[in-house]
Specification:
The complex is a heterodimer of chains A (258) and B (250). Chain A has 8 helices and 9 strands. Chain A is of the alpha/beta class. In chain A, strand 6, helix 6 and strand 7 form a beta-alpha-beta unit. Chain A is globular, with a radius of gyration of 18 Å. At the A-B interface, helix 2, strand 5 and helix 3 of A face helix 7 and helix 8 of B.
Chain lengths: 258, 250
């Protein structure tokens, strides 16, 4: 864990949709270079939290800063790389063109050679010139992650990027995300409803509960890096998962989620 | 049975030939008088007897279709883009754009005659008006089809508006724009013939009008077959252009 100060600082963030309190006074600080995962049931506001940090959702109250400035400044500076749950590749562009296009949207040089290298490094060597419809769901999300990396943003915001993938693909993707993140000093805020995924990826797991959306616990993950899929077979991993599941259960008096 | 035994164009051509043969057989068999329905061969003879007349009329009609249709389609596209980009403008004029489909544009024709006189400009203006609305409505619909996530992605890097418009929203709108183009092309042909009825100075529509007044169904059908030809050629060209455009963004 790095100690270069807070890359993301959320103070008493409140978001209200009509009469629903999506987020109730949420405070969260993420260090530069830290990988923080946010886990919680559907409707706990975890996506709203991520969208607020990304400047895609206006807060009702509270303050958010990314690299010491408002999210809008981070957007303009190209310091926010967002990966969405739904497929956001443009169907009329190849994988490579999709990767370079985000930089063009941000007003930067597309750097196609570097983009090609990144795709190859992500195991997408054969897919560089393929169109999204020719790729599997997992490969499409890999391209979307490479696209966010290629933007060159210091902060990556990921909203359940593996949520639509099957169980096996999901952990494979998580492991390769760790591979590509390891050599960078990027800050990551990663939202998921999978506890094993949150533990595998995070330096810290932020646990949320719903009605109203709030943070109920922050659990440091005591597993050494580098981690891979084998990490999930260890007793320490199982203990961490069990601990977080217990926190989730304790904070869910209503009907169980999924 | 193999459905793909012949190239695709063979089937409609065979259907057309069949229809003409049936028409001829019907006329011969029942001795239908020529002032009601002439034999197809009579119609062909009529075309061959005075080709200059029909070619001139077809050219006049085609020019109206192309010039008026292009102007109306372009104006409709730009209007569609404007209301697609400006949601409040859309909210303000959407009811009228949609109502304009119900209002027969032909009812505006007398007004056009007052403004533009009984010449070429009135025909062009009328065809353009006919072509404008479907294109505007379809384009506007296409612009509302951009996925939210794509706009979020663009917002996350504070992408400038013109890049979002040209790089994201326009490509997503292409299928609707192509649909609008098809409707506008069809209406441009209808509009040209209608314009030639009330301006009555040239073209296949004018020829049809004169033929009807003189009870000459052979001339009428000869002109009508050329209207069909012009419409078919235009639709084919637009269809080809449309599928090219769609393939770019598929």
């Amino acid at each position: 864990m790095s100690h270069r100060g807070a890359a993301i600082d959320v103070r008493e963030l409140t978001v209200r949709f009509e009469d629903v309190l999506a987020l109730d006074s949420v405070s969260l600080s993420v260090d530069a270079g830290e990988f923080v995962t946010v886990v919680g049931p559907s409707g706990c506001g975890k996506t709203t939290l991520l969208r607020s940090v990304g400047g895609l959702q206006s807060p009702t109250g509270g303050e958010i800063s990314v690299d010491g400035a408002a999210p809008e400044s981070a957007q303009a500076a190209g310091e926010l790389g967002v990966v969405f749950q739904s497929q956001t590749l443009f169907p009329w562009k190849t994988a490579l063109e999709n990767v370079t296009f985000l930089r063009e949207l941000a007003g930067r040089e597309p750097e196609p050679d570097r983009a090609r290298q990144r795709l190859v490094a992500a195991g997408l060597g054969d897919a560089v010139d393929a169109y999204p419809r020719e790729l599997s769901g997992g490969m499409r999300q890999r391209v979307a992650i490479v696209r966010a990396m290629h933007l060159g943003a210091s902060t990556l915001l990921m909203d359940e990027p593996f949520g639509e993938l099957d169980e096996l693909t999901r952990y494979d993707m998580a492991a390769s995300l760790l591979d590509s993140w390891r050599d960078t000093d990027r800050t990551v805020l990663f939202v998921t409803h999978s506890v094993p995924e949150a533990v595998l990826l995070g330096d810290r797991v932020v646990v949320m509960a719903d009605s109203p959306g709030r943070i109920v616990d922050r659990v440091p993950v005591a597993l050494s890096r580098p981690r891979d899929e084998a990490t999930m077979d260890t007793a320490a991993f199982a203990d961490q998962v069990a601990e977080i599941r217990q926190v989730l259960r304790q904070n869910r008096p209503a009907e169980p989620d999924r | 049975m193999n459905a793909d035994r012949f190239p695709g164009w063979v089937y409609p051509v065979a259907a057309l030939a069949g229809a003409v043969v049936l028409w001829g057989a019907f006329v011969s068999l029942f001795d239908v008088p020529a002032y009601l329905l002439p034999h197809p061969i009579e119609v062909g003879r009529r075309l061959a007897a005075d080709p200059g007349l029909y070619v001139d009329a077809a050219v006049a009609t085609t020019v109206k279709v192309l010039v008026g249709g292009a102007a109306g389609t372009l104006a409709g596209f730009l209007l569609g883009v404007a209301v697609g980009e400006l949601p409040s403008l859309w909210r303000a004029i959407a009811p009228y754009l949609i109502a304009a489909r119900v209002l027969p544009v032909v009812a505006i024709a007398p007004l056009l005659l007052i403004y533009f006189g009984t010449g070429f400009a009135t025909g062009i203006a009328f065809v353009a008006l006919m072509a404008l609305f479907p294109m505007a409505v379809s384009t506007a619909a296409g612009f509302r089809r951009t996925p939210e996530a794509a706009l979020d992605l663009a917002a996350s890097v504070d992408a400038p508006r013109h890049r979002v418009l040209l790089g994201i929203r326009l490509p997503y709108a292409v299928p609707d724009v192509v649909g609008g183009l098809r409707q506008s092309a069809t209406l441009a042909v209808v509009g040209s013939v209608l314009a030639e009825w009330f301006v009555a100075d040239s073209g296949l529509g004018y020829l049809i009008l004169v033929a009807a007044e003189n009870v000459r169904p052979d001339v009428l059908l000869a002109a009508l077959s050329l209207v069909f030809l012009v419409g078919f050629a235009l639709y084919g060209a637009v269809d080809l252009l449309g599928s090219r455009l769609r393939r770019i963004v598929a």
